[in-house]
Amino acid sequence: MSDLAWGLEMTVVGMGVVFALLLLLMGVLILTARLDSPDKPAADEPEPPQATPAPLATTPVPATEPAVEILTAGLTVQQATAVALAVITHAEVRRQQAAPAMRTHAPGSQIHTSRWVSVGRGAQNQSWNRR
Amino acid sequence: MSDLAWGLEMTVVGMGVVFALLLLLMGVLILTARLDSPDKPAADEPEPPQATPAPLATTPVPATEPAVEILTAGLTVQQATAVALAVITHAEVRRQQAAPAMRTHAPGSQIHTSRWVSVGRGAQNQSWNRR
Amino acid sequence: MSDLAWGLEMTVVGMGVVFALLLLLMGVLILTARLDSPDKPAADEPEPPQATPAPLATTPVPATEPAVEILTAGLTVQQATAVALAVITHAEVRRQQAAPAMRTHAPGSQIHTSRWVSVGRGAQNQSWNRR
Amino acid sequence: MNVAMESTIDLLLRGVTNVTWQSVVMLAVGCLLIWLAIAKEYEPLLLLPIGAGCLLTNLPLSPLVGEDGMLTVLRHAGVDNELFPLLIFIGIGCMTDFGPLLEMPKMVLLGAAGQFGIFLTLVLAVLLGFSHNEAASIGIIGAIDGPTSIYVSRQLAPQLLAPITVAAYSYMSLVPIIMPPIMRALTTQKERQIRMPYSSRVISKRTRILFPIVVTLLVGILVPFATPLVGMLMFGNLMRESGVVERLTGASSNEIANTVTLFLGLAIGSTMVGTSFLKWSTLMILVLGLVAFCLDTAAGVLFGKLMNVLSGGKFNPLIGAAGISAFPMAARVVQKEAAREDFENFILMHAMGANAAGQVASTVAGGVLLALMGAA
Amino acid sequence: MNVAMESTIDLLLRGVTNVTWQSVVMLAVGCLLIWLAIAKEYEPLLLLPIGAGCLLTNLPLSPLVGEDGMLTVLRHAGVDNELFPLLIFIGIGCMTDFGPLLEMPKMVLLGAAGQFGIFLTLVLAVLLGFSHNEAASIGIIGAIDGPTSIYVSRQLAPQLLAPITVAAYSYMSLVPIIMPPIMRALTTQKERQIRMPYSSRVISKRTRILFPIVVTLLVGILVPFATPLVGMLMFGNLMRESGVVERLTGASSNEIANTVTLFLGLAIGSTMVGTSFLKWSTLMILVLGLVAFCLDTAAGVLFGKLMNVLSGGKFNPLIGAAGISAFPMAARVVQKEAAREDFENFILMHAMGANAAGQVASTVAGGVLLALMGAA
Amino acid sequence: MNVAMESTIDLLLRGVTNVTWQSVVMLAVGCLLIWLAIAKEYEPLLLLPIGAGCLLTNLPLSPLVGEDGMLTVLRHAGVDNELFPLLIFIGIGCMTDFGPLLEMPKMVLLGAAGQFGIFLTLVLAVLLGFSHNEAASIGIIGAIDGPTSIYVSRQLAPQLLAPITVAAYSYMSLVPIIMPPIMRALTTQKERQIRMPYSSRVISKRTRILFPIVVTLLVGILVPFATPLVGMLMFGNLMRESGVVERLTGASSNEIANTVTLFLGLAIGSTMVGTSFLKWSTLMILVLGLVAFCLDTAAGVLFGKLMNVLSGGKFNPLIGAAGISAFPMAARVVQKEAAREDFENFILMHAMGANAAGQVASTVAGGVLLALMGAA
Ligand code: NA
Ligand code: NA
Ligand code: NA
């Protein structure tokens, strides 16, 4: 029965420790929530970063919003989707070109980056054949 | 001349073994073909999986097929291509987003996946900012 | 003061060597420029290779050029962009599909490749379901 | 012909003459894993390479598992030093959104409850005659988390690595099949119909960034053995939430994760050598693993019922089942069961919170287990 | 100035004083390879890194090939244990469609015929005074398959790895130049104009998935030495056809293949050290490699003619030339030659089948060669 | 309870009891680096992994830095043999356009001038009591080039690798903050307003391809110690300009660069162990690194002024500041300063030329430093 005893001891101690740790974590999370919510309602995050081009999924939707209506007048939803996708993909391509590894932040990052750096780097990273 | 003898022996044995093995393989292939064709004409494979978005190449073609004609009415072939490409690319992006590594099959897989999982995972993998 | 002496010696020798090397490099560059410009004005490079799909950035521009005007008649700039982007992206996809690693040059390469190989390989790399 | 010729033929046939019954059985097992991966889509990303690795290892005289063989090289490179599972954890961290958990901190407890199965299975295993280390390794299947299982069993009982990994990944993929009956058996219809309000709260970016750092420091100081698992999971999540290292997040969750998954699968498969795999213990491990999974689910649901009682009937006990870490499949199954009783009942977000907690709790439980075994 | 100063200058000039005639010649060879890669586009993905590796290795006192030098590290990491060529084989498997072969199983034999050159060159090499192992390594150039050549020659004659690899990849890229004259010389116009019906058959997904597994088991049991080559090629193809592991297929044929190609090229280049490369034998290897290539093509065409006779004039012998494994360039050249005589003659699919067979046959022949050499 | 129980509790608390003041400080340093990376965006691609590596290393009893710990494995795999910085150099080469430099060869000299800070800092460091090797390592921060700093200091003074790397990357990201005041202090408004004609010249593809080869041969023969750094930078550039190996260029500048950056950061972070990092010397290194940076900028501007005098007032001295290698940020800052005085003044292309020269000059200077230290 020593094995059973050992097993039960492990169970009690193990689950005890796991619960204790996660209770502690819960406490910290609740504390964080308290500290965070009042003083910063949402100003910290005007437009949350999107690591992936997920919003593509919703591109057909803007076609029904008035502001975009003007642009998309005379286009079918499919056409509007194509245009929106093209523009977003284009932006994605540009931002990736503009991001040399090892050099500061991904410059096309829609929150933080100055357009200047972005375009400058993008241009620098291709051959100068315009001239 | 022992070298020549060795070389010729190698040639005879080597090519003999290679031919024997490939003959065996041919036999197996023919057998497989026999076993496979009669009982399963093509039902096993309603729409074969396409690992790459290769069919893009043929997207202008559907524009001339009646079923798609309705959709593409009033569009040039180029426009139709753009739309088709946009939709396909979009689907590709979605399916890739929806596929967390290490977690079961690529969920956007057009054959096997329930739409539910796909969207659920895709959504889970981005920030919940809608709320 | 031996440390200071050593340091200054390092500085003199080090910067001396660095300057000497780079002067040599400058000489070589100037020489190259001399040798290169007269006999080959620009014929060597009818259209410089573009490793990245950077020209996407300028796709709206062709819409104002007469040669393309015909194609884009009746399209808004956005539509033309979408179409152009779609075509370019499509070409990019095709060329990447067409390039099995370890097999000669990237076959979609817009300068060097025969269309034949490109399409042949692209087709080979997907399932034969057309038949 | 001559002697050289005969020895040549001998050598050419050496493959055939070295086929053993164990290798034949293991080739069948490899094919079975490949079939499960392709036809049943049970975690194909890992089971397909494992099955292929098993095949290639058990072919007679396979040079792939010789001293400099490719599979041996891969095993040394990333399994023996636990590099591969930890790299995969970075990728999982990059892909996990802890938002629902941050919104509902009390869900953390459900994650803890989902680890009961680990210890109960440990008890069973030790009673069945396994050594303490082996029992603990078998118990870790109850974490329902592949990389954790590999990490822990590599340290406690490397000889059981193969069956434990196969069990862990197989059962992870069986979530939608195994869980529902248990969930239904342990809950009443009324309980399953409980609706829960979902008061969404905006989680600031600052909180999202602080979360992985705090968890790493907290767990790392209290359970040093859990540092690698929790640290890498949280490092991945920190990169994700920071929003400034998209290149690294992308590489971790794509290139690195894919490459490592491929290599890990092949390397794990190469540990499935007939003579050591085809033992009575393997079968017991598979059964015990299944038991662990069921116990986990049951413990989760029962804890959910406890929370329901404590909250005065406002907590849907199904959510408890999401406390195991099979993320995000478990949460999905919970939602499906709830919607089965009441089509408009949407408890997915709560389940997601519990599920993310299960992910953290699994790594913590793994570390605690290692700590306790180090002590024993 | 002082003594330290003088020794400093000595040290700064140590590079110049260590230039040898061998290193100068090798620098020229490196530049030649780079030129071939860029200007002639001869397999640039491998010849450019090889050329650069050759340059960087033969610069005087290059730290890159010192004990902890980067090129040495890469060589140990993937060439000495054959990891890199095998990883590339996974990628090739992911990109190869065996459909045309599955539709026309008899094409398999053409793949076998395309390996004759290996053994005939072996005979020539041994008559020229190479040792048996060296002769076999030189013969393997006749497989017209880069990774196979690297894999086999690494085991049989590592000292010849550099020239053999360079020869293999150079000649692979010369397919469109070397093959046509041989094909025309050995066939009549009438033969080249033979049209072949192409009765396409739908290959079920099940067959496509079974094919790589069956080939692995068959070849693996009969020729254990071929297990790594065939196994990895077929593992890649299994992933491709399974359709459930797109992430792994993508990683294998892109990230892993590209990275490994880069590293492999640099590492191979680093074996081109002047003192060991600049030997009479290197030149002979280059010539013998060319001979092997021509013999392969000729044997393929002649076997095609045999099949034409056996089939009563219904088989276009040009297709035989596609039995070498340079995939898919050889098939393309065959189609081009056929279309040259009769613009509407479309035998590409038949040639593709023979070409895919050549790919398999090359790995089998490599394994058989290793088996036979193990015996001798 | 019993003894086992007590020792269990001891073991569970061993983490807490092993917290030292050094580890607490280093945890704070790790958090500081993470904060700088996220909130200030100081080179987050490297500082975030370094910070995380620092955290994970200094957690009590961290298994990640044990003998087979993941961070130790990564350090052995790529830092101890300098593999990672060299791989990153391939990627940088793939992304650098030397066109502006090829158009204006005299800009090369500005790159040389931008390395003065290395040696002046070396003098300061040696006067402050650092050993010769350490002083040279500290001086290399003045190259303002991360991989070069890692490469050189790994060889000369591995014990200072951590602070030197942190300093190098921190200051690289401070380019837009540190440089402008120095530039303004050393130039007159009139000088800053000098406009420069930009007579663009078409650089043929041939020249673009010859450039990396010629630089490699030239530098490699004259300064063998610089072969790895220059060789890899130029190899990347050769692949870029060749236009025939897009797959390799893509892999080098994306997958490989991202993966290596992640691993390098974690590995560097793991060298920041409290007991060896928390020394007086670390603080001095940080200060000296800043001094080196300022001296570099000043030397560049002063050299620019010299060129202005020599050219009869036609050279904008601001461009001299772009001779440091922080590419392409330095060139951008120069353009910004010029545009501040005269909105239409466009000297970006000249600055880009100087900046690219600085990149080459940094690697040359690193090699010269290694050569001189080998001599001393
Ligand atoms: Na779990
Ligand atoms: Na072949
Ligand atoms: Na510099």
TrEMBL record, chains A, B, C:
List the GO biological process terms: sodium ion export across plasma membrane
Q: Which Pfam families match?
A: OAD_gamma
Record InterPro entries: Na_pump_deCOase
* Record's subcellular location: Cell membrane
Protein name as catalogued: Sodium pump decarboxylase gamma subunit
Q: Where is the composition biased (Low complexity)?
A: 53-62
Alphabetized, the UniProt keywords read:
Cell membrane, Membrane, Transmembrane, Transmembrane helix
List where the protein spans the membrane.
12-31
User: For the region Disordered, what residue ranges are annotated?
Assistant: 37-62, 98-131
State a single Gene Ontology molecular function. Answer: sodium ion transmembrane transporter activity
From TrEMBL, chains D, E, F:
Q: What InterPro entries would the database entry show?
A: OadB_MmdB
Describe its membrane topology: Multi-pass membrane protein
Top-level taxon in the UniProt lineage? Bacteria
The entry's localization annotation reads:
Cell membrane
Q: What is a single cellular component term in the Gene Ontology annotation?
A: plasma membrane
- Keyword Electron transport on entry: no
Report what the protein is called.
Oxaloacetate decarboxylase beta chain
Q: What is the lineage of its organism?
A: Bacteria, Bacillati, Actinomycetota, Actinomycetes, Propionibacteriales
